Fold DNA repair protein RAD51 homolog 2.
Amino acid sequence: MASKKLRRTGLSVELCDRLKRHQIENCQDLLSLTPIEVMRLAGQSYQQVLVLLKSVSQSCAPSMTTALEVWKQRADLCFSTSLPGLDRLLQGGLSRGTLTEVTGPSGCGKSQMCMMLSVLATLPKSMGGLDSGVIYIDTESAFSAERLLEIAQSRFPDYFSKERVLEMAGRVHVFRELTCQDLLNRLKRLDEDIISSKAGLVILDSVASVVRKEYDTSLPGNLAHRSNLLGQEAATLKYLAQAFRIPVVLTNQITTHVGDGGERGAVSFTGVPSEEGSGYVTAALGNTWSHSVNTRLIFQYVDARQRQGIMTTRKWRIKGQTRASSLSEYGQDSTTTL
């Protein structure tokens, strides 16, 4: 990954510090220079620079793995949501090393789901947790510390004493990024945050909020710029998920397409495939973004007290919707404890 920090490529601390004084901190910064420029900045010979550039290039290239290695790791591929119905739908839980998107209408419990997952990640492994920290990036100012503590004590009253619940809260690291550039900058240096906080889960709530505020796609050029930004964000998040073998959870908003059926068989929020020529409601940010996530969870209202979940993997819809039994455990209404 081009945004990988030079400190994580095996270069000496002295060399990294020297390059940093010239604003060269990641692989992309260094590999964008010519060998002559690197010679001048690093104070090395031409042959040393060629070896240096080759080493950095190899360290940021995607690593190869075999099907056998993937099969051997299968027992450690999922992080349980603690909801049996949802885990069945996900075939074990949230997949490590991939992007899982949670989308649905406002108020359906997306942020509440993220806070519940944050609590679960801090639990000991013997209780199904990750015994790790959490990186929670909040772009909507929707994160509530009070709600986080309430979820922890309500779901696990026997475990979370006053001391433990405060310790749990100290392991959830919240970053509020309210502009597209701030969010992109945060993601580019997130590897250091993951290491320092020993994070086993990354949450971005939400990926659509700042993008939709700043980019009016009806204006010329904005759609291309937005797609480029989302592509950078997706590539960075995928690299982090794979490099640290952790689940990354994103929330997304919804959008309505009037008089356009979109793709044949697209999943609408009524759970019924759209018919060609009819309007439909779907996840925001378009087809380019939809190809960036590995798994999409669609939450919707069944009625005032129940939620329904639909899962799509890439472009395939999983038959057999998980109804209230899978999601009622985390919310019969907006205030029910996860």
Summary: Residues 222-244 form the longest helix (23 residues). Confidence is low (pLDDT under 50) at residues 261-268, 270-277, 313-338. The radius of gyration is 22 Å. The chain has 15 helices and twelve strands.
